[in-house]
Design a protein that fits this description.
The complex is a heterodimer of chains A (155) and B (184).
Chain A (H helix, E strand, L loop, with lengths): L1 H9 L9 H15 L9 E2 L4 E2 L3 E2 L6 E9 L1 H7 L4 E4 L2 E3 L4 H9 L11 E6 L5 H13 L4 E5 L1 E2 L3
Parallel strand pairs in A: 2-9, 4-7, 7-8
Antiparallel strand pairs in A: 1-4, 4-5, 5-6
Chain B lengths: L1 H9 L8 H15 L6 E6 L18 E6 L5 E3 L2 E3 L4 H10 L15 E6 L5 H27 L9 H10 L4 E3 L9
The chains are: A alpha/beta (155), B alpha/beta (184).
Chain lengths: 155, 184
């Protein structure tokens, strides 16, 4: 009987936290691997339309983003309310696209350049006029792989 | 003796107790900046730029399935007003032509889908149309894959199988230069 009591008295050692940093580091490395730093602050309202026939964009480093939408409230005064194009974190015009594509291209390894995709994040309410101008410019610049960004449609 | 003990203290290990805190800090930073959200969308291959534009609607043959969208987001399919909900079924019927009607495509390899919009068409409607037409092809590919290989069409199929299916039913969608009637 006394044996049992003795054991019970000893049975509350603190859980060792020595391996806690290791666990945290593991998590840290995981997130470091999957992180792609947010590169741009969105200056437009972009609500992409819904669709069903979606494909996933594979490598994020091979994708450049073109945003099209109406400027948010903060920029309405200086940029108006008509749809605008945003490249990176700046408002841009169609004429800026070739340089933007080139800037992205030089960061990509040469053998992967044919796989570069342009992701068009376009607001659903925007009219096709500006989208068409941008598509034409992309075709002229030889950037033919395009992904119309869309949200999956809830069933 | 006292000297020796101070030397001992110098060679002590660095306290690693705060390591967890530092790691936590970094962890939280990466948690905040991470965007796990997957980027999805409809992938399209644009045609290379050429100065002269071929307008397949002018060919006016039975092999062209023309879809026009005007600035009011209304659809005109093969010259008649239509609803977007019927688009998928009609496109499928046009491509396969199960009853061998002489106003639909001769065979799937000859079928051309022509999508034309106005500069005033809303992007949402345009993408919906594109999605429906793509869905029609995807469903046909699925059926073909089930017939040939007993499973649904998917991107990780062997290359030859995909090639065979796309050879029987090629995806031909031509986009004409948009009209400019409706204004933007």
């Amino acid at each position: 009987m006394s044996k049992f009591q003795k054991k019970r008295g000893k049975a509350s050692p603190a859980v060792s936290t020595a391996s806690l940093p290791d666990i945290i580091f593991m998590l840290l490395f995981f997130f470091m691997m999957v992180t792609v730093l947010r590169d741009a602050e969105l200056k437009l309202t972009v609500t992409t339309p819904e669709a069903t026939e979606l494909t996933k964009l594979q490598e994020k480093s091979l994708v450049n983003y073109l945003y099209i939408g109406k400027p948010i409230k903060k920029y309405e005064e200086s940029y108006g309310t008509s749809p605008r194009l945003q490249l990176g974190d700046k408002f841009a015009t169609v004429a800026d696209i070739p340089l933007f594509l080139e800037r992205h291209k030089i960061k990509v390894a040469e053998n992967k350049r044919p796989k570069i995709t342009s992701s068009l994040k376009v607001d659903g309410d925007v009219t096709m006029g500006i989208v068409q101008d941008i598509k034409t410019q992309l075709r002229k610049s030889g950037q033919l792989k395009v992904n119309y960004s869309a949200r999956p449609r809830p069933e | 003796m006292a000297k020796k003990s101070s030397k001992d203290r110098l060679s002590n290990e660095i306290n690693a107790g705060s390591m967890a805190d530092i790691a936590f800090l970094l962890l939280i930073f990466f948690l905040v900046t991470t965007t796990i959200v997957e980027d999805k969308g409809i992938t399209v291959k644009l045609p290379p730029w050429s100065e002269e534009d071929v307008d397949p609607t002018k060919l006016n043959t039975r092999n062209v399935f023309s879809v026009l969208v005007n600035a009011q987001d209304q659809l005109l399919v093969r010259g008649e007003p239509a609803d977007i909900k019927q688009l998928r079924e009609r496109a499928k019927e046009f491509i396969t032509n199960p009853q061998k009607r002489d106003d639909l495509a001769e065979r799937p390899t000859k079928a051309i889908i022509s999508l034309k919009n106005d500069r005033g068409t809303s992007y949402g409607t345009y993408l919906e149309c594109y999605n429906e037409l793509k869905a029609a092809y995807n469903e046909l590919w699925d059926e073909e894959a089930k017939k040939l290989y007993g499973r649904e069409y998917s991107d990780d199929m062997p290359f030859e199988q995909k090639k065979k299916i796309k050879g029987t039913i090629p995806f031909v969608l031509s986009e004409a230069e948009p009209t400019n009637f409706g204004g933007e």
